[in-house]
Amino acid sequence: MGLIFLQILLGITAVSTALTGGLFYAYSCSVNPGLGRLPDSSYLLAMQSINRAILNPVFFASFLGSLVLLPVCTWAYISYDVSPGSWCLLGATIIYIAGVFGVTMGGNVPLNNALDKADLAAADKDELARRRAAFEQPWNRLHTVRTVAAVVTVGLVVAGCIGLK
């Protein structure tokens, strides 16, 4: 593999991971605080809508793209030259797989799926409060973990860009 190809691959990987990290960061800074101010019914309906809307090709391109690109890019760079930059990419890969993808699939998605099945229109005020309590705090805690992991991943990819020959 030529160096130009590796640099292009690294650039695409960096953009993909930055898009995912930026999405989670922006959600933490703006969407979650805004949603948190809503009454139970509005909060739950908004989360159902958001969780359905995010399942689209643009989101999947960066979220799943990073899941594929990070290990491919890491392998390519380690095969080319073992350097501090390639070790940063390996760290980014591990953190993304476990902390971003793993937490999302093992934690946030099951909560989203359970909420999606809820018939909120038929729920009374007490049921809505129970559903929100069962969803909001665990979901936000998991989201914080994946956001931190995504930001660390981006940082490591940037360090990898700087540390590669």
Please tell me about this protein's structure.
The two termini are 14 Å apart. The radius of gyration is 19 Å and the shape is elongated. Helix 1 packs antiparallel against helix 3 (57-80) and helix 3 runs antiparallel to helix 4 (84-116). It is mostly helical and 165 residues long. The mean pLDDT is 95. The chain has helices spanning 3-36, 40-53, 57-80, 84-116, 125-163. The longest helix is centred in the C-terminal third of the chain and has 39 residues, at 125-163.
Helix and strand topology:
Elements: H1 3-36, H2 40-53, H3 57-80, H4 84-116, H5 125-163
Structure summarized in a few sentences:
The protein has helices at residues 3-36, 40-53, 57-80, 84-116, 125-163. It has 165 residues and is an all-alpha fold.
* Mean pLDDT value: 95
Q: Rg from C-alpha positions?
A: 19 Å
What share of residues is helical?
over 70%
Low-confidence stretches: none
Structure annotation, total helices: 5
List SSEs in N-to-C order. Answer: HHHHH
What's the N-to-C terminus distance?
14 Å
How would a crystallographer describe the biggest sheet?
A: none
Give the amount of beta strand, in percent. under 5%
How many β-strands, per DSSP?
Answer: 0
Oligomer: single chain
Which outline best applies? elongated
Structural class: mainly alpha
Features:
elongated; 0% strand; 165 residues; single chain; 5 helices; 87% helix; mainly alpha
